[in-house]
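pasting input
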Amino acid sequence: MPDQVTINEVGPRDGLQSQNRILPVSGRLQLIRALEAAGLSRIEAGSFVSPKAVPAMAETDVLLHSLEQTERNGRASYSFLIPNTRGYELAREAGAESVTMVVYASETMARRNARMGMADAELAACQIIDLARADGIEVIVIVAVSFRCPFEGAVDPAVVHKIAARFVDAGIHRLVLADTIGAADPAQVSALLGALAREHGPGVLGCHFHDTRAMALANVYAALDAGVRWFDSSIGGLGGCPFAPGASGNVATEDVVVMLRQMGMETGIDTGALLAASDLATELTGTAPGGRVREWLRGQVGS
Ligand code: COA
Ligand code: ZN
């Protein structure tokens, strides 16, 4: 049996949230359907955030209803990013089955992104976990700036360990360590994820890498080596947080999938259909760079 790896496709959220071109719900839906057709089983489909703060994520409730009411191309489960309890309420009202709550490894990043401190974001996350348990909603917790903060610089791993212990003990579905600005290197990833995996087991962990310094794929490998089997990635390498200066695109789903497949690991993703989704992402946004492997992949699929 090959090793199974879960790819959590974040293009429809992280990828679209900071684009100049704001897609209508129909375009966001079309992209999600193309990703499902490629076999992606987990998709972060949008966020319940203030439409004034992130106009590209407005009408995520309408998107969720459209996802339920139109024909599916596969059997993906969708999660929705939330920054606070209001986001949780909106997600629940819209019928979300999974939410991804953001907490922070730096005080300034918390205030810039959510307009509350680290402690308040963690408190909100704990309250959301309790509510979600009663509501039967899955909770993923993502730790923003787990490696480096654009405002405060290096992050002390002890801060991340403390957050990890608090939330793993709270019984969440997954704890995702995010390199929000793409500043981590493989040695750092190896040290942090190795230690977290020894403490909590790798099964509850996930990683979210951006490719600002061209180390995202190397970081995926370092995390794999530590036992991590859940990776956030974005179709076409789209991505970036509007509130974290210097953040560029996420690691491209294409690149991660091709690397894993070549190493004999199983993702359940069809690379031909993935290429079609990547081309659609470029067509819709006008900017998706397509990862490093897209042109090589085009030759393989065409031959
Ligand atoms: N979804 C939608 N609207 C929300 C909301 C949410 N999760 N949380 C708050 N709001 C609305 C309020 O209803 C209020 O609306 P109004 O101005 O029409 O009355 C407005 O936002 C401000 O409310 P307030 O409670 O003062 O919010 P805040 O200032 O404490 O927080 C955030 C603002 C965090 C909600 C907002 O900055 C935000 O959504 N940021 C997006 C973060 C993000 O997506 N980052 C990128 C991904 S990590
Ligand atoms: Zn991100």
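fyi The longest helix spans residues 118-135.
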